Amino acid sequence: MAQPASKKQRTHPTYELLYHPGIPGRGEHVRLLLEGAGVPYVDTARDQKDGYSTVQQICMNGAAESTDGNPPTFAPPGLRVSGAGKDGKSLVISQTPNILAYLGEKTGMDGEGEQEKYWVAQVAQTALDLNNEVHDTHHPVAVMKYYEEQKEESLKKAADVRENRLPKFFGFFTRMLEWNEGNGGKGKYLIGSKLTYADTTVWQVLDGLYFAFPKEMEVRKKEFSALLDDFYNSVKSEKGIKEYLASDKRFEYSMGIFRNYPELDRQ
Amino acid sequence: MAQPASKKQRTHPTYELLYHPGIPGRGEHVRLLLEGAGVPYVDTARDQKDGYSTVQQICMNGAAESTDGNPPTFAPPGLRVSGAGKDGKSLVISQTPNILAYLGEKTGMDGEGEQEKYWVAQVAQTALDLNNEVHDTHHPVAVMKYYEEQKEESLKKAADVRENRLPKFFGFFTRMLEWNEGNGGKGKYLIGSKLTYADTTVWQVLDGLYFAFPKEMEVRKKEFSALLDDFYNSVKSEKGIKEYLASDKRFEYSMGIFRNYPELDRQ
After folding, report:
1. Where are the domains of chain B?
2. B110-238 has which fold?
3. Residue A9's pLDDT band (cuts 50, 70, 90)
4. Are A125 and B101 an interchain contact pair (Cβ–Cβ within 8 Å)?
5. Using an 8 Å Cβ cutoff, are A184 and B187 in contact?
6. What is the rounded distance in angstroms from the CA atom of residue B86 to the CA atom of residue A101?
7. What is the tens place of the pLDDT at every residue in B167-225?
8. Domain B15-106 bears CATH identifier 3.40.50.2300
9. N or C: at which end does chain B have fewer Cβ atoms within 10 angstroms?
10. Is B132–A132 a contact, with Cβ atoms under 8 angstroms apart?
């Protein structure tokens, strides 16, 4: 494994990401944590023949059990961990913040000590809130309908997110970088002196925003350069992340959370 | 303390909820966890003279530090814990799912064992997702504008949430109750055989929905009676919860997340 020696380094069970195939989506936050940690995993729908059937059977089955005695999953992503469930069976957990907390603890991607663990979680959860708001720019009034059926509302929602919400979130993440300057973060990390899943989760949302709103981001980059230029590029070049982004394991954005509708971008 | 003896029972530091005054809001999930655990806490804006100034100074200050060396807070709720920070100072954490995870672990409200801890978190996080979707029924396109300025869009969003999202979420929580029948849950608990913060968090969202959409809920109650009748009333009568709900510490719904606009309800 590529990660530096740590008290949390250990032999890992098989971590299996259960997610939709072909899109980064919310699964990407899980992938980036594991890639940044240098811990191997199986991305079932990507790596296994008929893998998406397995994802559907476990995470989208409509029954009162997912599998192996685990409770049902509301929606992907799910995480299956061999041998970690009751009676030595597999454990299945869901909800992105929850999977990140679990894997953060197992891989050391949640910082050092109890305080950092909760600070990492809160910053990642804030990035996931932004992730949801960006999703709503193309689905503001009806989750299951097409964008084209809610385009008028999308124009309003996207303008609000670009004009009011992005600067609020970018301002917060910038303040995190300032706060962490004194802790050895050097503008590279949001919490502490090494990569955590707060960094990878914030990074993924920024990267998606660069795809969805390129014109808006070009302007914001001047205003929030420490975040959108220095931090963004620093995470991109982290060991594990760099190799992953250059590989064919990384999915391209398309019709998932981050979509490039030019009419929703800054005009 | 009123809670049953548990290996997690201990002397607690001072837990201080930092939240807006006068509304249940997201702070209510924190209050219900602590009331259900029988653990004392300070609700700063409610209990202290000029308490809201303290909340604003710590959680809404726009600086690169909240207080005592802790990182900034994106928005309330925050939790301050005496003596739990670095160098014996106070710890400040934020984000509702994160505060619930922290207090769940400290009070035993996160179930028994590692598996239950993550299952409790994922169910609570699913309820908080629903909480956000309900908020968006009156603020679908512009977070900072008035409802009256986005009423047309609200009518569409509320219809979508009532018709498509509520049955999906209620179906999931019902499947949790079915799954947990065999684990000693008896229809009273979502995970395991005692009250957890999954129960209190789901309950609070259901209770808010009864206020916001009384007509819709009256119909849904027949369809999802195990959840909306049996489970809902059972949590309401839990030790700690019952006394709290009858007290003047419980805020009434008004203009927060849950609002009663009759035009958004089932017609």
Report:
1. 15-106, 110-238
2. Glutathione S-transferase Yfyf (Class Pi); Chain A, domain 2 (1.20.1050)
3. low
4. no
5. no
6. 21
7. 999 999 999 999 999 888 889 999 999 999 999 999 999 999 999 999 999 999 999 99
8. no
9. C
10. yes
Same fold, A15-106 and A110-237: no
CA distance B243 to chain A (A): 31
In this structure, which amino acid lies at residue A109?
Answer: M
Q: Give all strands of the β-sheet with B91-94 in edge-to-edge order.
A: B42-43, B15-18, B78-81, B91-94
Taking the CA of residue A46 and the nearest CA in chain B, the distance in Å comes to 24
Return all residues near A192 (Cβ < 8 A) that are at least 6 apart: A111, A112, A116, A180, A183, A184, A185
How many angstroms separate the CA of residue B64 from the nearest CA in chain A? 5
pLDDT tens digits, one per residue of A193-202 = 999 999 999 9
The full DSSP string for chain B is: --SPP-TT------EEEE--SS--TTHHHHHHHHHHHT---EEHHHHSTTHHHHHHHHHS--SS--STTPPP-SSS-EEEETT-SGGG--EEEESHHHHHHHHHHHHTTT-SHHHHHHHHHHHHHHHHHHHHHHHHTT-SS-TTS-GGGGHHHHHHHHHHIIIIIHHHHHHHHHHHHHHHIIIIITTT-SSTTS--HHHHHHHHHHHHHHHH-HHHHHHHHHHTHIIIIIIHHHHHTSTTHHHHHHSTTSPPPSSSSS---GGGS--
Q: Closest CB to B98: pick one of A85, A125, A156.
A: A125
- For A207, B39, B244, the CA distances from B71, given in Å and listed in that order, are 24, 26, 32
Query: Which chain B residues have a beta carbon less than 8 Å from that of A226?
Result: none
- B143/A160 touch (CB, cutoff 8 Å), yes or no: yes
Closest CA of chain B from A115, distance in Å: 7
pLDDT interval class at A3 (50, 70, 90): very low
CATH class of A110-237: mainly alpha
Nearest by CB to residue B142, choosing from A98, A122, A160, is A160
B118 touches chain A (CB under 8 A): yes
Mean pLDDT of A54-58: 97
What mean pLDDT is predicted for residues B74-103?
97
Classify each residue of B87-96 as buried b or exposed e, where b means 16 or more C-beta atoms within 10 Å of its C-beta. Answer: eeebbbbbbb
